[in-house]
Structure formats: structure tokens, C-alpha cells
Specification:
This protein has six helices and 13 strands. It is of the alpha+beta class.
């Protein structure tokens, strides 16, 4: 049997949040594109960037919620919550029972919760093991699938009917012996996602780039319309608006190196690190050029 949790409330709230963040990002982008650099533009562009990041994260969560399903047969229980599929063989399930009603039953919560969504992980105090949440209801309305390795928290639409179906199938002889495991698609198995050095290089490049943009926004209102290019033989003048090209060029290089490095990382990790390191150095050089021009 295949049981799907009630996802309607969680999807509605998620779509509402997604739309709100999208509007904030759009307003920030339009404000940034329509005005010269200034502290207000710095705030608007920062808000737009954070809103876009939040929208991407919520979109990822909503994709998982939309895919949620629990498949139960005599061989075991299969939990689908994109991008993962959790396979729990029947012989590994020690018990299936309602979750504890009191909030103190779990501690160390890490994850995302809003009305209609309860996904993440925590530690079960009494059972003394990890709890993985794949639910759309709060703790008192969840079912706990208890195994020796972990507890899986689910929320079928009809909990008692699901418990009865589980007991009926547990009494049957399995037709195949499954292995308790979690299956991810190929892209999610890439070593990149757990590579802290890779994230540090990309993050540092983004941080330097963003700092360069914010610094320009703080300085720009006090600049004259034309500024001299220091060190030029004939004291060339250029429009102060041309300074925007430096962080723009930095953003293009950062994005290109980030994507190319990601594609190379799985099989050519040193080359990927080299690309990200060069990208970080380019951000530093562009920041230095800006400081030299405006000193």
C-alpha cells in the first residue's frame, strides 16, 4: 500500500513564503538596477540576495514535501522524501507506535518546521537514538518507526489504519530480504556537498565580492561625477559609474569559476580547487584596483 501524508497545508504555507521572498527579491533587484550605488542600494541588494537564497532553500524543501510518500508491504517500509529514498526492511522494524505527546521527548532539533511541515532530525531522549522526521504533522500526531539504527517519524493521513496495515504485513512471510539503507540520486552523492574546503573557497570569494560591492555603495555618494585613474600618463578621467563594472566583472568570474569547479570536482579535484583559488585571487585584485582608484 502507498500512503501519502496530507501535504496541502504545508504546500500552501511554503508557496506563500516562496512568493513573499520572490517579491522581496524582485523589489530589491529593481531598486538596485534603477539607482546609482548608495547605502540604500546596498541594503536593497543585500536583501534581494538573502531573499533569493531563502527562496531557493524553500523551493528545495517544497520539492521534498511534494514527493512525500510511504510505501508499505510485507518486505518493509519505503519512505520517499526527495531527494532521498529510505528503505527500512520489515525485520529491522522493532515497533511502530504513536510519537510521544510531550515536546521534551526530543532534544537538539535541527531542521525546518512550519504549519504542515516537520522535517529534520533530533535526538529521542527515552529511546536514546536519532530521530529523522518526514512528517507534515506536529509530534503528537506522528507515528514513530523504531529501528535499532534510528527512528523514522512519519505522518500518514490515517495513522491507525497504517498501524493495522503494518501489523497485518509484519505477520506475513517476506518475499525478499531488503537492506536498511538510504538511496540518493547521482548528483546528491557527489563528494562536493561534503567538501568543506570547496565551500570555504567559494564562500570566501563571494564574501570578498560582496564586501567590494558594499564598500563601493558606501563611498559612491561622495564621489565626483568624474574621477582620475591613478597612475595614468595623461591623468585620464572616467565616470564614477564605471566603477560598478569592477564588482560586476567579479560576479561574472566568481559564478563561472564556481560552476566550472563544481563540474570538475568529482574527477579533477585539484583543478577545481585551482579554479576557486584563482577566482578568490581575482576578487582580491579587483578590490585592490578599486581601493587604488579611490584612495
Amino acid at each position: 500500500m502507498t500512503e501519502r501524508p496530507d501535504r496541502r497545508r504545508g504546500l500552501r504555507v511554503g508557496v506563500l513564503l516562496e512568493g513573499l521572498l520572490g517579491l522581496i527579491a524582485l523589489a530589491g533587484i529593481l531598486f538596485t538596477l534603477s539607482r546609482p550605488p548608495s547605502p540604500e542600494v546596498a541594503a536593497a541588494s543585500t536583501g534581494a540576495g538573502l531573499a533569493l537564497l531563502g527562496a531557493v532553500m524553500i523551493g528545495y524543501v517544497l520539492r521534498g514535501l511534494h514527493s512525500a510518500r510511504y510505501y508499505l508491504d510485507r518486505n518493509g517500509l519505503i519512505l520517499t522524501w526527495w531527494p532521498a529514498v529510505h528503505i527500512i526492511p520489515m525485520h529491522a522494524i522493532q515497533d511502530l507506535r504513536p510519537a510521544p505527546a510531550h515536546p521534551g521527548a526530543v532534544r537538539g532539533w535541527r531542521g525546518i518546521r512550519w504549519p504542515g511541515l516537520y522535517t529534520g532530525h533530533a535526538w529521542a531522549v527515552e529511546e536514546n537514538r536519532l530521530v529523522l522526521f518526514f512528517a507534515t504533522e506536529d509530534l503528537p500526531r506522528q507515528l514513530w518507526v523504531i529501528t535499532e539504527a534510528a527512528i523514522y517519524a512519519i505522518s500518514p493521513a490515517q495513522p491507525q489504519a497504517f498501524i493495522d496495515a503494518f501489523r497485518e504485513r509484519a505477520a506475513m512471510k517476506p518475499t525478499q530480504r531488503l537492506e536498511q539503507t538510504t538511496v540518493f540520486p547521482g548528483w546528491r552523492q557527489r563528494a562536493f556537498w561534503a567538501d568543506r574546503a570547496a565551500w570555504a573557497l567559494i564562500g570566501l570569494g563571494a564574501l570578498v565580492l560582496w564586501g567590494m560591492w558594499l564598500w563601493l555603495c558606501m563611498r559612491f555618494p561622495g564621489l565626483p561625477p568624474q574621477i582620475p585613474l591613478e597612475g595614468s600618463v595623461h591623468a585620464l578621467l572616467t565616470s564614477s559609474l564605471h566603477l560598478v563594472r569592477l564588482p560586476g566583472l567579479g560576479a561574472l568570474i566568481w559564478a563561472l569559476h564556481a560552476v566550472l569547479g563544481f563540474l570538475l570536482h568529482e574527477h579533477e579535484r585539484p583543478a577545481a580547487y585551482g579554479l576557486w583559488l584563482v577566482g578568490l585571487m581575482v576578487q582580491g585584485l579587483l578590490l585592490g584596483a578599486m581601493l587604488q582608484i579611490l584612495r
